[in-house]
Amino acid sequence: MADLETLLFVTAVWRHGDRTPTSLLPSDKQNTVEMIKEKFGGLGQLTELGALQQFELGILLRDRYSGFLPDEYSKNEIGYRSSYYNRTKMSILANQQGMFASNGQNAPKLPLTENVSKTGIVIKYLQKGEDPYVFDEVDCPVGLYFSTWVQALNYKCYIN
Hints:
InterPro entries: Acid_Pase_AS, His_Pase_clade-2, His_PPase_superfam, Histidine_acid_phosphatase. With 160 residues, this protein is mainly α.
């Protein structure tokens, strides 16, 4: 539990919950893509496990900062910032549901938008590529090398 006598401000940073793959190997069958689209809405989307992870994190944050957080969500007291990706925004919705869940509320099910607070939730984000603080893509020499290597003709023989 937080020391409420000295606590003035809280900033929490976390990643999105579990997600579907952002890309598939060329050998993956088309029905894999169709299944991911049908069940989760596409590649790189939050899964039900990811929503549950965020819901539980929200409960943990509520327990940690009980007495400091308001009883109900208030856009004037709590702010959220996200990357442009849908999975990060959906993670915030699940986290907020856990943080402000009434006792006995069930874990979230996708789609999360059906259970959003009636007061509305404000999520600030910039368009992809415009946010200097939330990285959309990172230039990583090892990642670039690996990507180039995978695309090489002599490697393609290993991909079924």
